[in-house]
Amino acid sequence: MMGHEEQILTWLIDSHEKKDPENNNTRKASISITAKFPEYKEPLSDAHNDIETAIHHLISWGFVQCSKNQQGYFTKIELLESALPKIYHFLNRTPKTELWAVQKNLLGKYVNQPETLAGRFCVAMLDRIAQRKDIEYGLAKDMKLLEDVLWALVNIEKLTEETYIRNFSEMVFHDSKRLQSILNPITRILLDYGDGVGQKETVLAQYNLISNPGYVYIKGDWQISCRGQCISTDMFRGGVAISSDALDEIEQIHVPSGRVISVENLTTYHDTKESQGAIIYLGGFLNTVRTNLLKKLYELEPEARYFHKGDLDPYGFLILENLKDKTGIPFKPLEMDLNTLRQCHHAGHFRPLDEADRKTITSPTLAEYQPILQYMLQHNCKIEQECFEAMKLEQLVGV
């Protein structure tokens, strides 16, 4: 636990590091004692005495200056800048100017590649440093972590086929477990500066990084040719799962019904009736292999009608737009309309929006869905696909 001496010095150094070195009129870093320690107002308390003792220590060490008012109480503590080297040593803290110099050197390696994920991220972080702000994602203090995250971002964007996370980690770091230990900042950066959509748990797979083999699930009236053999999926109740490794081997695809339905969630895929057309569940994400499969489908079946069933929430529409953008297929939303949202909301099957939802709603990508999104904002609601079946169950069992 930090003592009062460390607390006071930390506040003073934080204030000092926010100062603009170009502005000579900036006042010395200082803090109000009663603002930081309200308990100091109780003169007979142990807390008051402890704070006084800490201030006397700091004055005697030559770290601060502080005088008392007419009532005999300390009021404001000012940092003595001549003592900065000793204070940084006392706190075991590196001056921000030194950290920023190292960070600028690391980030500067990629700013000449603004079209890349790493380049966009580095430009944004250098802009923060220019404004005397910390870089984000928990990377401000650990330079080894920053270096490894940048190196991972550079290599993740190169992947064109599904790759196991541990194999990738061994290739990049010569340590099969290193990537797993730094995934939190990486996944957040992929969502904020890359093409990934959805949640942190699934964004790696969109960049072809997986923990286990991926499968595409299809059912309904698909006719698929591979190695000279044709398979009609309507022969299999519940459909079939095709390994990602086998997707590139598909030669021909035919959809007799002329209706293709992509489904976001696996449970909803199973609930969707096979009679509705050719149903496909992509494993919750689009990567290179899945994108190529859909492009091949559209090339062979350009006259088919394409629909997508997703959650009625901001991310559901973002996933739909990402699906359209990556494949070039004009998918239409299915059961993702305002009337469906109202029905589920009135039935009590909804979740409240979180901060990420509210931020996503403002994305220009979602402009055409604003009437639906504004209803979500107005009523603080979003709908998961499972709500539809739950409403049917309520009618069936009389809940």
Q: Which structural traits does this protein have?
A:
single chain; 399 residues; alpha/beta; 6-stranded mixed sheet; 3-stranded antiparallel sheet; 19 helices; 14 strands; 14% strand
| Unreliable spans | none
Overall helicity: 40-55%
Radius of gyration: 29 Å
Number of helices: 19
- What strand order characterises the main sheet? 9-6-12-11-13-14
Distance between the termini: 53 Å
What is the structural class? Answer: alpha/beta
Q: Give the DSSP E fraction (strand runs of 2 or more residues).
A: 5-15%
Write down how many β-strands occur, each being a DSSP E stretch of 2 or more residues. 14
Q: Return the average pLDDT rounded to an integer.
A: 89
How is this structure best described in words?
- This protein is of the alpha/beta class and 399 residues long.
- It is 47% helix and 14% strand.
- It has 19 helices and 14 strands.
- It has helices spanning 4-17, 33-36, 46-60, 84-91, 96-107, 117-130, 143-156, 165-173, 178-181, 183-193, 200-206, 244-247, 266-271, 288-300, 314-327, 338-346, 355-361, 370-379, 386-397; strands at residues 30-32, 64-68, 74-79, 163-164, 209-210, 215-220, 223-226, 229-232, 240-243, 250-254, 259-263, 278-281, 305-309, 332-333.
- The chain has a six-stranded mixed sheet with strand order 9-6-12-11-13-14.
- Strand 13, helix 15 (314-327) and strand 14 (332-333) form a beta-alpha-beta unit.
- The longest helix has 15 residues, at 46-60.
- The radius of gyration is 29 Å and the shape is elongated.
- The protein starts with a helix and ends with a helix.
- 30% of the residues are buried.
